[in-house]
Amino acid sequence: MKRYLKSILVIITFLIISVFADKTAIMHVKSNLKSIGTSYAMYFTDGLNTFIPHHSKIDMDTAILTYTHPENQKEKNFLFITPRYEYSGNSTLVISVTDAPILGKHIAVFEDGHVKNISKDQFQRLAPTFGLHLIKTVEAKLNEETINDLFKLIEKLGAQKYKDRKAAKAAILKLGPDVQKFLVKHQNDPDFEIKVSIKEILKEFKQQVIRPLSKDFKPPNVLPTRIKISH
Questions:
Q1: What does the mean pLDDT of the chain come to?
Q2: Which of 16, 157, 183, 227 is most buried by its number of CB atoms within 10 A?
């Protein structure tokens, strides 16, 4: 009986140590991410810079660029936002994130410096932001009626009345990002109003990906099945 109790105590002790170790490791990951967020904020304090540079241009201790994964003890790298996005210090844009899930979720630091967990689904939506490329996608097919309606709406973008142009633009946006491949053919349309509206619509579709965690975000009808890090 004493032998069984001793075994149980050993197991309980091991579990307690493991849980404590996991929590300590996760705290270390979050601490590194917090330091990364602070480093980015310091880069923009002079007010001269507005666009996010490559992370190598940020003055950061190289020790915070990696982390030890709590579940397999392997050294992993943080993913950083790709250059070209504008820094505004808000709470919607992710600056850096773990390249692998920890206990089922990724950990990320946002533009305003706060650190929180994000789901795998949210991480996949962030793929373009971090230079991740979708290898295979399942794209919703547009039926012939929708395509015909789209072409009619494109013509209405050149209407004389502003309210008609505005209504056509809203209707196209409502169709979703799957119509982009038809719109790009008209981004240099000879009609000035159509050309400008098409460029604005394409920009809006792009921003839906740039702001993946905002309240107004609507994911495109393209579902990633596999992702790969682009080096």
A1: 75
A2: 157
